[in-house]
Amino acid sequence: METFAIGDVHGCWETLQRLLERLPFDPGRDRLWSVGDLVNRGPRSLEVLRWARETAGEMGERFAVVLGNHDLRLLALAAGVTRAKRLDTLGPVLEAEDSGELVAWLGARPFVHRGGVGKEEWLMVHAGLLPEWTVEDAEAAARRVEAGLAGPLRNALLVRGSEVPEVEDPALPPLRRAFAAFTLLRTLDADGRPCPHSGPLEEAPEGCVPWFRVPGRCTAGRRIVCGHWSALGFRREDGVLALDSGCVWGKRLTAVRLDDGEVFEQETVEGPDDLPSGDEAG
Q: Does residue 179 sit in helix, strand or coil?
């Protein structure tokens, strides 16, 4: 059994199919992991989401997907707690006859997936981990956020920034902090606050460092696979494997065989008219 991890797809169905055809992957034996952001920005989120749900039915626990910020945007739109933005391409999903089933399946995905690959243990998350978390802390936080998303705090978690409703619940702030770390984190300042930076690593504001470079990070040296930061691109550093190589921005979709680290890349095949224009952000 081998394990393949794939970066952010963002509805780029044709590129995903090309990459899958190139992988030495046996769906009857191997494992396939997705770092999230299956949908949005690209032209065919509906096909990608249907493929993911069908693949989960066929492969069971050998197919793992964690929630990304754009997956959560779909959940928020479906719940009616936010409005579509210019670069959103989720209309076909929301209007599909199987929309309810697809949204429900996606909403049941975890924020963190933990699994053994050979003699190594890997943790998969969409964006990042807070430096004070151990692997066990991250898993526990993920389960709390998942429970919150399945309960009465769902809408308060799904909306962002100034859209947050007035909810007086002491459980909400720590849940929102963990929620943001799992799905949005890139860099942190010296006080441990997320920096609003989505560009290249070398352009990060002074004092802001990538979450995986924070001194004393409790998961230092652990095997972690993530996505989200397209301007960072494919990167290996201190056990962290970052896989968002900007497929939806006309670059490439990347997969890695976690067993031996072999990299498989597929140049984006969607045309410019099918892809977004604007800032390259996750």
A: helix
- What number of other Cβ atoms are within 10 A of residue 195's Cβ? 17
Pairing relation of β-strands 240-242 and 223-226?
A: parallel
Q: Please state at what angle helix 172-184 crosses helix 135-149, rounded to 10 degrees.
A: 110
CATH class of domain segment(s) 3-162+170-264: alpha beta
For the entire predicted model, the pTM comes to: 0.94
Output the CA torsion sign for 273, 107, 264, 242.
positive
In this predicted model, what pLDDT tens digit does every residue of 159-208 receive, in sequence order?
Answer: 865 455 555 677 888 999 999 999 999 999 988 999 989 999 999 999 99
Would you give the distance in Å from CA 78 to the centre of its chain?
19
DSSP conformational letter for 23: S
Give the residues across from 262 on adjacent strands.
Answer: 257
Please state, as a whole number, how many other Cβ atoms lie within 10 Å of the Cβ of residue 273: 7
Report d(CA 160, CA 250) in Å as an integer.
Answer: 27
Between the CA of residue 126 and those of 113, 144, 227, 260, what are the distances in Å?
10, 17, 5, 21
Tens digit of pLDDT for each residue in 106-118?
999 999 999 998 8
